[in-house]
Amino acid sequence: MPETGRKGVNAMTTELKILRRESAQSEAYRQSFIFETEDENAAVSTALTALNARDDLKDKDGKPAKPIRWECSCLQKKCGACAMVINGSPRLACDSKLKELGSVVTVEPLRKFPVVADLIVDRKVMFDSLREMSVWLKSELTPDENTQDIAYEASGCLQCGCCLDVCPNFYAGGKFVGMAGGVPVSRLIEQLPKDEKSEILKEYRKRVYEGCGKSLACRKICPAGLDIEKLLVNSNAASVWKSLFWRKK
Amino acid sequence: MEKTIIIGAGLSGLTAAITLARGGRHCLLVSLQASERAQSVLAEGGINAALDVMGEGDSPQYHFEDTMKGGVYLADENAVRRLTKGAPEVVRWLAGLGVPFNMAEGHLVQRNFGGQKKKRTAYAKSSTGKMIMSALIDEARKYEASGLIERFPHHEFIEAVIEDGVCKGAVVRDCYTDKSAVMRGKVIMCCGGMAGLFPNMTTGTTQNSGYAAAKLFEQGVIFGNTEMLQYHPTTIGIPDKRCLVTEAARGEGGRLYIERNGEKWYFMEEKYPELKNLMPRDVVSREMYFVRRREDCGDTVYLDMTGLSAEIWQKRLPDLRAEIIHYLAIDPAEKPVPVHEGIHYFMGGIYTDINHRTNISGLYAAGECTCQYHGANRLGGNSMLGAVFGGKTAAEDILARGENGNSGETEFSGECHADEPSEAVRKELGEILYSGLGIVRSEAGIDSAIARLDALEKREGIYPRTRLGRSMLMSAKARKESRGAHYREDHPDKDESLRAPTLSWCEDGEVRVRI
Ligand SMILES: Cc1cc2nc3c(=O)[nH]c(=O)nc-3n(C[C@H](O)[C@H](O)[C@H](O)COP(=O)(O)OP(=O)(O)OC[C@H]3O[C@@H](n4cnc5c(N)ncnc54)[C@H](O)[C@@H]3O)c2cc1C
Ligand code: SF4
Ligand code: SF4
Ligand code: FES
């Protein structure tokens, strides 16, 4: 197999300061690890993988350490598994190149979900919200060329939860579901025939529109690069149009 | 009430669950991580079906012929016939679920893909898998809400419960709490390809560790064609894995070349004037391997996409361009991209009949973990089709057989763990397998890999994955011919007496192989 990654000229040394916790119940603590690489594409995921592959993992002070628990799957920023807070911002570990992060990198679990262990959080609340809002089709659609663009964008959500981490208005258990809920709903708002939209629009207004401050902090952070603004404008238009329509009636 | 246990929540697992739920039956949908993280979301190029919308007179018969020929006649003919006949309905169903397939003038459009003479691949730009998955996830949610689908989204398959030769359920572990449970009912394995047997060397995900398949192999499930690995011609190296450059890049006009005496040599076009760069993957990968070894050629093959129009980049391949820029700092619209063959797909896997039943009653399998549709080489776009169609077929068979037994509640209590060696041993095993199962193989190479595997097992112990690895090597050794992805330099020709699947299984702790 050819070498993976492009090799840069210079070796790079990074200190990863990881916020750790053995289980949901135990105390959190910080532990630092040193990682060296010559691969200029090396990301936080590369470092975590390499550290865990060591037979006897030791921290920066030479103290034996347990493997660092984290989730990953695709390692190419397409599945959302590896979302965590890196240098203070929610990001995908596999999309966070070390050379762009500085020599000391802080790594923490996402902040709005319950921690399972180390960098693993339970993102169940996102999936629950979608179920509560009935995000599904009741009957078959007729494919329509004009709705494909919005549907494509809205189907791209990774359910990573980064947007919820930065959103000033979202907290787990609240009525407002944030963009991890708002984006998938916008597919249905776009694709459903006009006379079948009212229920989903009602959910949208209650659980997305009314809670959203529209600062678009989520858009800047979304690792899938989704055009959240376009989706919001589209869904809001449908939703406002509907409410005016109702008032007139 | 009898519940069906589905292991894996990618395309095949979701389709099986939805099909069962539509038939009013309950299932437990078990996966290591949420569906959004399954390997299926990575699929880019598209899904095949003879919709005949491109004015080329396509038909399921042509699709059948291309699939059998592409797999060099090792696939199960009856299963492929059913698959290709059912394909248009599958794609129409997906479109009805709102998958935003590319369209023009009111109908779906299809693109060229390798090994096929007609435009037969329906696609949603370059994220077809993600788009289909999002629609299926929404559809499954409807039945989660009604209680017919019960999700276990951070749960690991540990082993099948097999009593008197009948599968009665599965043992699973909650990865968050470490507690385990016995789930009772029929089981459909939808656990994906065996990428984890080759750590860091494939285009797949870390989630598809290969453990589930390996454990079943150890438990007596018969496998087929495990020597058949697909090397995709165009991958690039990124940290910890290979990253795919979709075949659609060539379907849309990308050309492969190597420098020969200082000039660009479009070797595929010269050698295969009909299908050119779109020959089946096994052929393209092998040609790349050989041209790189020629004295008069350079050591890098390039994929030249500079001739693609702005419209194609924007409307059909937008994500691909961004990806290549991200990893290689090369804009493929302006400069050719260095590419290399990489392990991409496992044609081999659990052996089933055309209804997706395994040799163990009560145990089914569908998706990339099975082997019946693709023979010695899979055509691009046929695996998503096989996964969706397979999940549906397995579930329909279970529906047709009616309910028997009571699954009871799922209770998590004691602890148990997968029977796996350390990461270092898994890596070493991967290197051993790779040394014997490259693009070009020989008896001597395979024997030396087997000897290294013997030594590894002696030193570290025998594990399910070392056994399944042994089956791959022994299958490659037994097939003394060249067919599809399996190329033996010591037997470079096809031997028609070997036109049958390579079966392998584990009996009294010994791995056995028969063609
Ligand atoms: C980069 C890439 C591009 C591709 N492009 C195309 C394409 O354009 N067209 C095409 O037809 N095909 C393509 N393929 C192939 C195709 O995507 C796959 O073959 C198909 O999606 C497999 O679906 P599946 O349901 O079998 O499994 P997967 O989607 O792989 O899902 C496997 C499931 O099993 C679960 N699992 C695994 N092990 C365990 C365990 N021990 N316990 C519990 N759960 C477990 C996982 O969590 C996951 O949910 C591509 C593949 C890759 C990697
Ligand atoms: S726009 Fe602001 S309030 Fe609305 S979801 Fe995004 S971050 Fe939250
Ligand atoms: S909207 Fe973006 S940030 Fe939010 S969950 Fe989806 S992909 Fe992640
Ligand atoms: S591992 Fe899939 S997004 Fe990082």
From TrEMBL, chain B:
Which residue numbers delimit the Fumarate reductase/succinate dehydrogenase flavoprotein-like C-terminal domain?
468-509
Q: Give the region (Disordered) as residue ranges.
A: 479-498
**Per the record, GO CC terms?**
plasma membrane
State the Gene3D superfamilies in the record: FAD/NAD(P)-binding domain, Fumarate reductase/succinate dehydrogenase flavoprotein-like, C-terminal domain, Succinate dehydrogenase/fumarate reductase flavoprotein, catalytic domain
Q: Does the keyword Oxidoreductase apply?
A: yes
User: What InterPro entries would the database entry show?
Assistant: FAD-dep_OxRdtase_2_FAD-bd (IPR003953), FAD/NAD-bd_sf (IPR036188), Fum_R/Succ_DH_flav-like_C_sf (IPR037099), Fum_Rdtase/Succ_DH_flav-like_C (IPR015939), SdhA/FrdA/AprA (IPR030664), Succ_DH/fumarate_Rdtase_cat_sf (IPR027477)
One Gene Ontology MF term: electron transfer activity
Q: Please name the catalytic residues of this protein.
A: R281
Q: Which Pfam families match?
A: FAD_binding_2, Succ_DH_flav_C
Q: Which keywords fit this entry according to its UniProt record?
A: Flavoprotein, Oxidoreductase
Q: Which residues form the FAD-dependent oxidoreductase 2 FAD-binding domain?
A: 5-383
Q: Which GO terms describe its biological process?
A: anaerobic respiration
Which PANTHER family does this entry report, sorted A to Z?
SUCCINATE DEHYDROGENASE 2 FLAVOPROTEIN SUBUNIT (PTHR11632), SUCCINATE DEHYDROGENASE FLAVOPROTEIN SUBUNIT (PTHR11632:SF53)
According to UniProt, the name of this protein is: Putative succinate dehydrogenase flavoprotein subunit
Q: Which organism is it from?
A: Ruminococcus albus 8
